[in-house]
Design brief:
This is MBL fold hydrolase. With 385 residues, the chain is α/β, with parallel strands linked by helices. It has a domain of 70 residues. It has 13 helices and 15 strands.
Length: 385
């Protein structure tokens, strides 16, 4: 971790976070500067990824599902978090056999002939055969990068889940027209999870030829789904580690197992002129500490400064607070972020704790079914640089 990063005093952290009890102190110690005395020295790679002038993120949809209780009830009823996501019988792969008795092959066979153009017809079939289709939403974001020349380039990060909801969101934010006009040059998938990936036909309806980047680790069903959705463009599997995209922008694939039999997560890093590092993530299953430390160890960026972070930070996705999460809230202050935009699996309760801690959270408008202004919600934007 950089010497010039802002550190919170150990006892001050205890007073504002977990508490000064023995267990709380142990948790705080694990995120305090004191712990670094036991870490081996790490030589920074300082890879030059170039520089960009600014980054703007538009939240197309952060509402992956509408009711936590419904989703968790489905997961528990189907056998738990280690069950293959394609077996839950969630949309769009419903086969009519009920919770936990799903099948990719049986589900896709009912709608494949309608993809990607006849989504309304497909959704009617999906609703009739799937478990809780009304609870499906999705996560998707538009990332606009301004190059040093002033040229602007657009990318999609994820495409959501529900065809019905995501098509509505795409039209609301003008993503449909951008895709039709070939203004968006590529689609990056953070990972294979249902709420980030299964809405793919909505994007392909408007541009079936778009280049797609997926992290290494997609399962056979996911790879087949890309084909079954009617994709005709380049499919690029990004290897684990750091991968340069354009000047000032790189992705990083973390080789990690994730719930619901998903593997690997791809996040985005930007080096913004005069500002520093900007980190954009879908879910951050790798954890915010590993996300920040990886950038420090791997990338050269302006002023050695962590300027901003955006996305789902995966701390309390179901607002089920655990005392250990307080450690993460406290540790986030160590990185000196100057702009924080959180939503999706961050958890509303966690976002409010960030605000209470005095962190520079950019709040939203709580419109289009986003639940709280502590989030950068549906239709909201954040700019870095």
């Amino acid at each position: 971790m950089s010497d010039n990063m802002k550190r919170r005093d150990f006892l001050k952290g205890a007073a504002t976070g977990v508490g000064v009890g023995l267990l709380g102190a142990m948790g705080l110690y694990s995120y305090s500067p004191m712990r670094e005395g036991y870490f081996p020295e790490t030589e920074r790679k300082m890879t030059d990824i170039g520089m960009c002038r600014s980054v703007k993120v538009t939240n197309i949809s952060e509402t992956s599902w509408f009711e936590n209780g419904v989703l968790m009830g489905d997961i528990k009823g189907a056998g738990g978090l280690l069950v293959n996501q394609y077996d839950y019988n969630w949309p769009p792969f419903g086969n009519g056999k009920g919770l936990g008795k799903g099948s990719y092959d049986e589900g896709i066979a009912k709608i494949k002939h309608l993809l990607p153009n006849r989504l309304e017809e497909a959704w009617d079939i999906i609703e009739a055969n799937s478990v809780h289709p009304e609870n499906a939403g999705g996560y998707a974001a538009l990332v606009e990068v301004e190059e040093m020349s002033g040229n602007k380039r657009k990318f999609l990060l994820d495409v959501g889940w529900s065809y019905k909801w995501c098509d509505e969101c795409f039209k609301r934010e003008g993503i449909d027209k951008m895709l039709e006009n070939k203004e968006i040059e590529a689609l990056f998938f953070s990972h294979e999870h249902f709420d980030h990936f299964w809405g793919l036909p909505v994007a392909l309806k408007y541009d079936p030829d778009i280049t797609i980047y997926i992290p290494e680790g997609f399962y056979p069903e996911g790879l087949q789904y890309i084909k079954d959705c009617g994709h005709t463009g380049k499919l690029i599997t990004v290897k684990n580690g750091l991968n340069k995209v354009i000047p000032g922008m790189a992705s990083y694939v973390f080789a990690i197992p994730i719930i619901c039999r998903v593997y690997g997560e791809q996040s985005l890093y930007f080096n913004v002129a005069d500002k520093g590092l900007v980190s954009v993530t879908g879910c951050c299953h790798q954890g915010i500490i590993r996300f920040a430390e990886t950038a420090y160890n791997e990338i050269k960026y302006e002023n050695d400064n962590c300027h901003g972070i955006y996305g789902g930070l995966h701390i309390s996705p179901f607002d089920d607070w655990d005392p250990k999460y307080d450690d993460l809230v406290i540790s986030l202050g160590d990185y000196g972020f100057e702009r924080i935009g959180c939503n999706h699996c961050t958890g509303v309760l966690c976002a409010k704790k960030f605000i209470a801690a005095g962190y520079p959270v950019v709040e939203g408008t709580a419109k289009f079914r986003s639940k709280d202004k502590a989030y950068l919600g549906n239709g909201d934007t954040i700019t870095f640089g």
